[in-house]
Design goal:
By secondary structure, this protein is of the alpha/beta class. The protein contains nine helices and 13 strands.
């Protein structure tokens, strides 16, 4: 929690991309999306990543400024990240993440170090650690964050860009963990968990001394294991999942906690942010 008259400082480290769809493109990547909602709900946001010396890289900076996110971006010889989004015949989306993007080569810079040493929370996920270069930088930056800062680990498993060692290392840093029902199944095998969903979440929370564990089951329901268990169930949402709803939930929750909201209040705010993404997706399929 920060002072009433001071905006909490939130950084996100990792991939920054443009999602390329058949008829449009938009700024993407979980870190930027997370920050968009953290800023919307009262935080100051800083994105630590890398771009190429290309038109898309310049567009990244323009888009971040539009969303009032401070760009802490290195310019590399590699192209700005892209994700090709395909719409399947059943209406679902498939994303293909292109290799050897600028964000695979995030350097440890003075600007990034200065930023990370002054944050109240830092967000990270598994995807940006797919290459050794960025993996080393990201781990060093997380370690440079203030001890009191929240370390928000969004499991965010994509394609085959993760392994047990990465997940275990990030769990060591984390005091907030966010995952969905499918990711919990993977962790169940990986961490040799047992029992009910609640039992498995309690085991992870206790073993890694987490302050909060967030479990989302699409947009239908969410549970947060903190000092207590809070549960929110949504009825009547035609769209059970929308691209970006989880990031909206995460950013709104983190900002709300930093602004002194209770777990239940922050949970309700985060849920509403995710629901709004789902409802907007229904209107614009």
């Amino acid at each position: 929690m920060v002072g009433k008259n001071k905006k909490p400082q939130v950084a996100a480290i990792g991939e920054v991309v443009f999602d390329i769809m058949p008829e449009s493109r938009k700024l993407g990547g979980a870190p930027a999306d997370f920050l968009h909602y953290a800023v919307k709900y009262g935080a100051a946001g800083h994105l630590i990543s890398a771009i190429g010396a290309d038109d898309l890289g310049r567009e990244v900076v323009t888009e971040l400024n539009k969303f009032e996110i401070n760009p802490v971006l290195a310019i590399t010889p590699y192209p700005t990240g892209r994700v090709i989004i395909f719409k399947n015949s059943n209406g679902s989306l498939t994303a293909h993440i292109l290799e050897n993007a600028a964000w695979d080569y995030i350097p440890f810079t003075e600007d990034a170090e200065k930023c990370i040493k002054n944050v109240d929370a830092v967000y990270f996920d598994t995807l940006a650690l797919r290459k050794a270069y960025s993996k080393s930088t990201i781990l060093d930056l997380i370690a440079s964050a203030p001890q009191k800062a929240f370390k928000f680990f969004d499991v965010n498993l994509r394609q085959d860009y993760y392994d047990k060692s990465i997940i275990l290392k990030l769990l060591e840093f984390a005091d907030i963990l966010k995952l969905n029902a499918e990711e919990l199944k993977i962790l169940k095998t990986m961490l040799k968990l047992s029992g009910s969903v609640e039992d498995m979440c309690a085991q992870i929370k206790e073993q890694y001394q987490l302050k909060f564990l967030i479990l989302n089951d699409t947009a239908k329901e969410s549970r947060i294991f903190g000092d207590t268990l809070t549960f929110v169930k949504n009825d009547g949402i035609r769209q059970s999942f929308a691209y970006g709803a989880g990031n909206a939930f995460a950013g709104a929750f983190m900002s709300s906690i930093l602004r002194g909201k209770s777990q239940q209040e922050a949970h309700d705010i985060a849920n509403q942010a995710a629901v709004e993404v789902c409802l907007a997706s229904c209107k614009n399929p």
